[in-house]
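Q: Joint fold for the lines below.
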Amino acid sequence: MKVFQLQDEWTIDHLTLTERPDPAPGPGQVLLQMKAASLNFRDSLVVQRGYGSMTGELPLIPLSDGVGTVLAVGEGVTRVGVGDRVCPTFIQVWISGPPSGARGPALGGPLDGVMAEKMVLSEEGVVALPDHLSDAEAATLPCAALTAWSSLVTRGGIKSGQSVLVQGTGGVALFALQFAKLAGARVMIISSSDEKLERAKELGADLGVNYKTTPDWWKPGLEFSGGAGIDHILELGGTDTMSQSTRCILRGGRINIIGVLSGDRVDLRLGAAIARSIRFEGISVGSRNGMEAMIRAIGQHGLRPVVDTVFPFDDLRQALDHMTSGAHFGKVCLEH
Ligand SMILES: NC(=O)c1ccc[n+]([C@@H]2O[C@H](COP(=O)([O-])OP(=O)(O)OC[C@H]3O[C@@H](n4cnc5c(N)ncnc54)[C@H](OP(=O)(O)O)[C@@H]3O)[C@@H](O)[C@H]2O)c1
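A: Joint structure:
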């Protein structure tokens, strides 16, 4: 079968389209014919060994997120059948419960990922999908969507009438916007682009602020919440955004620490964090149970993930370049 692998060096230049023997499912395993994949910011770091030893060893098949149909099942498999369309879960062994259960490795580093024609996985590591999604749309769910869902729903317990701030218009941010609107919340979004902010408003954003032309965006953030502060913030920026997030969060509000797009070092006034009773929580994607709950909601509401571009499978390099350029709005995908 055809696979992409990082061959012998941790650099995008060593991403190679090559062949590996077809895998076969053992007891409790399923064989998938892969249909589509989607990129996460993480994938651009993995190819440079951006997670250090957590990224695993070479050769490595990259990318965590994909979708496939079940071609064959091993002995004893009951969760899915031949012909079902499924997504692999990001952390294969995290089935349910709190983050203490999330100790397993992730697909796409250190485990081999989805950029292969076929994949063998435990039946415990796949989830079934609603019919209304295209393959590319379905491929966006395991990491970006579940991270937004875990932040707002599983861990955040979002309620109708609350307020949410999302940063940027990438994968996690737009899923957070969509899930917050499903929950009946008001959403402020910040972006470097007025044109992207207009598109976010079409998706339901109540306020868009350009963080380039309004660098003190925490001020409109406070106004947006009537001066009280925002209930849920999805912190994706890190160095450039965290201190502003602490200035426009509600007393007792949640800052979900998710991304470090501008760096992972922050200068924080802890006194202010104490005085405002801020709840900081690091989010690490989510469990299979969380993903199944999210997929039920997506099916029930007919929600469509925002797909920016779909590249052919062979154009992984171009797809990665497109994502790292920051030109995208939503998800960058690949199809076989
Ligand atoms: N903890 C977890 O479980 C988890 C899961 C998924 C992702 N993440 C992390 O979350 C972050 C976002 O991931 P993603 O896959 O959604 O990325 P992405 O799709 O590549 O989105 C990146 C977008 O973020 C915006 N952005 C960049 N720098 C910014 C800054 N300084 N302030 C505000 N917005 C900024 C830009 O949007 P505009 O063009 O609109 O400005 C950019 O296009 C990454 O750091 C990723 O590693 C963490």
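Q: Anything notable?
A: The first strand starts at residue 2 and ends at 6. The chain has ten helices and 15 strands.
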